[in-house]
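In this section we walk through a basic example: taking a raw amino acid sequence and producing a predicted 3D structure, encoded as discrete structure tokens. The instruction is simple. Fold the sequence below.
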Amino acid sequence: MEEAGAVVATAGEAELNLSRLSVSPETLESELEARGEERRGAREALLRLLLPHNRLVSLPRALGSGFPHLQLLDVSGNALTALGPELLALRGLRTLLAKNNRLGGPGALPKGLAQSALCRSLQVLNLSGNCFQEVPASLLDLRALQTLSLGGNQLQNIPAEIENLRSLECLYLGGNFIKEIPPELGNLPSLNYLVLCDNKIQSVPPQLSQLHSLRSLSLHNNLLTYLPREILNLIHLEELSLRGNPLVVRFVRDLTYDPPTLLELAARTIKIRNISYTPYDLPGNLLRYLSLASNCPNPKCGGVYFDCCVRQIKFVDFCGKYRLPLMHYLCSPECSSPCSSASHSSTSQSESDSEDEASVAAHRMQKVLLG
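The resulting token sequence is shown next.
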């Protein structure tokens, strides 16, 4: 039998490493009970318990009684199908590592998790490499959570309630089957790292531009053909990974354009000519409509639009090497030049404008990984 682990004490804290034991789960249970008894008389509290790569099929019962001050628990690489009620007894647990198990079925997480003390203490949760098909609802109430890893599962979507995790700084959802990014993901004020690589995502919602703390965005190996123009607003973004996406080099420019209504034409005239009005001049519904005006991104246009606009892809230079396809919304087809295969040397007005815009923001993007 391998060495059964050792207590490592340092300045008022201790770690118990019982990883990779060649013993049965029953023997490991007895070992934990004995170690728990030893710690009850010790001056320093046991803060870290490492149990990875054993043959555990359930959490040891000794957790609930022998390790009340535990801050980190690692049960990765076992055969767990559920995290039982023993977990709820660890009232001060900050880090739970349970990757590469068999979690994901009904009852995979203990009942009452959202109402337990863990809701206030748990900061890091790693459930990657399991069998979850959806994000468990109880996880969305862990308001103190700073890092959530659910990579390598079978997730089909990201619930809108993800916005409840207001303390989240790192979200890892790579290696799933996610097709859409909910706009609510943009409501996480502290998010620094967002990993959505190796999924089936086809578009990025413009609401991600609200992630003002975001430093790293991993979107490689998806189905993206463009990015929203608003991504330029991520002023702290340092890493953008896009390799392995079908970033095509030609798009249809003759897009269908429905003529604006008489209401919109009148509202455009008021905005473009700066016709003055007061709240007493117009009904409330017209005042609200006028407040919804969007400026055309072409600086040589000066127009506005409300409901009717032209959607167009523009390639923007970053770092002097890569060209990112960004989505633009123009006020009319006249703001863009038709695609001309005969004139490769000429650059359309709106393309030039897009590149000018990008040159201002290029210093924000230190690493663009396209291949």
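Looking at the output, two observations stand out. The longest helix spans residues 25-40. Helices lie at 25-40, 63-66, 118-121, 262-272, 284-290, 349-361. In the next section we compare this with other chains.
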